[in-house]
């Protein structure tokens, strides 16, 4: 399931770093631990976006000027979502970077129909490689047009699907068809304008800071419907529970109305 949490912004003009996934990861981890349920302390089968709203970019980061700020969270387990929302909404206000946010309400998004060919955009960076302490391995660039790019994401996806325990070994063997084809026109346009689709991002694990390379680009994924649902709900690549690898379908209307979701009391 996928939900949108809508916050009221109490201090317009305040800023967060351009990439603030690590701040959100720390916030959500703190909420999960504060709730007191050990089974959710290290729950990995969820994903989240960056904060969305009307922004302006400066040297200090993203300044938010809208009344509302939105955070999208996706997970397979409704019990986990309800647990997270219950404890999040126990706070009258939370802080993310310089933003002071008041939780207001929640909407539930409808999942798209999953096919064996799906066009996606990245709404948070996709990470391919696991970093090591005092090592630049996690920052290595891999061209999306190389087979290694798709192969690395296939291996990461199968590993996560196996660990989740929802699929048996026979099912996983049948998910051998997996190919990511980047949007060539997008890559050509990026190259022509000298912009970047692959950047270095901070990531914290066990209080240790790492740097990873994340990719944001549109692409087509050819895979089984079960795999398509998995990457859409739980994310694609490494460190999805830390806010990396969140996808959306290319034809999704961000302005469409979604039903309100009942927040557990």
Describe this structure in words.
By secondary structure, the chain is an alpha+beta fold. It folds into 2 domains: 2-109, Alpha-Beta Plaits; 117-249, 2-Layer Sandwich (Alpha-Beta Plaits). The chain contains 6 helices and 15 strands. A 5-stranded antiparallel beta sheet has the order 3-6-1-8-7. The chain has a 4-stranded antiparallel beta sheet with strand order 11-14-9-15. Helix 1 crosses helix 2 (78-88). The protein is globular, with a radius of gyration of 18 Å. The two termini are 20 Å apart.
Short description, anyone?
This protein has two domains: 2-109, Alpha-Beta Plaits, CATH 3.30.70.1890; 117-249, Alpha-Beta Plaits, CATH 3.30.70.1900. Helices cover 26% and strands 30% of the residues. It has helices at residues 21-34, 78-88, 147-164, 169-173, 184-193, 225-234, and strands at residues 2-9, 15-16, 46-48, 55-58, 61-64, 68-75, 94-96, 99-109, 117-122, 126-127, 178-182, 198-205, 208-215, 219-223, 247-249.
Summary tags:
265 residues; alpha+beta; Alpha-Beta Plaits; 2 domains; 5-stranded antiparallel sheet; 4-stranded antiparallel sheet; 15 strands; globular
Which helices and strands occur, and which strands form pairs?
Elements: E1 2-9, E2 15-16, H1 21-34, E3 46-48, E4 55-58, E5 61-64, E6 68-75, H2 78-88, E7 94-96, E8 99-109, E9 117-122, E10 126-127, H3 147-164, H4 169-173, E11 178-182, H5 184-193, E12 198-205, E13 208-215, E14 219-223, H6 225-234, E15 247-249
Antiparallel strand pairs: 1-6, 1-8, 2-5, 3-6, 4-5, 7-8, 9-14, 9-15, 10-13, 11-14, 12-13
């Amino acid at each position: 399931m996928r939900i949108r949490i809508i916050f009221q912004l109490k201090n317009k003009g305040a800023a967060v770093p351009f990439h603030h996934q690590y701040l959100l990861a720390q916030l959500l981890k703190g909420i999960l631990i504060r709730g007191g349920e050990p089974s959710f302390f290290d729950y990995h089968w969820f994903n989240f976006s960056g904060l969305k709203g009307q922004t302006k970019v400066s040297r200090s980061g993203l300044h938010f000027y809208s009344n509302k700020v939105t955070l999208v969270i996706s997970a397979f387990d409704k019990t986990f979502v309800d647990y997270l929302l219950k404890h999040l909404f126990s706070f009258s206000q939370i802080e993310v970077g310089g933003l002071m946010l008041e939780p207001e309400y929640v909407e539930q998004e409808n999942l798209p129909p999953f096919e064996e060919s799906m066009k996606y955009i990245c709404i948070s960076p996709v990470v391919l490689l696991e970093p090591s302490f005092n090592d630049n391995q996690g920052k290595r660039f891999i061209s999306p047009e190389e087979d290694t790019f798709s192969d690395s994401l296939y291996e990461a996806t199968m590993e996560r699907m196996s660990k989740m325990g929802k699929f048996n070994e026979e099912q996983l063997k049948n998910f051998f068809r997996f190919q990511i084809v980047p949007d060539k026109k997008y890559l050509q346009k990026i190259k022509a304008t000298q912009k970047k689709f692959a950047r270095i991002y901070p990531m914290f694990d066990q209080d240790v800071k790492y740097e990873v390379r994340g990719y944001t680009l549109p692409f087509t994924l050819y895979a089984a419907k079960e795999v398509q649902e998995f990457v859409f709900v739980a994310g694609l690549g490494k460190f999805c529970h830390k806010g990396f690898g969140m996808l959306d379908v290319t034809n999704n209307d961000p302005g469409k109305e979604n039903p309100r979701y009942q927040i557990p009391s």
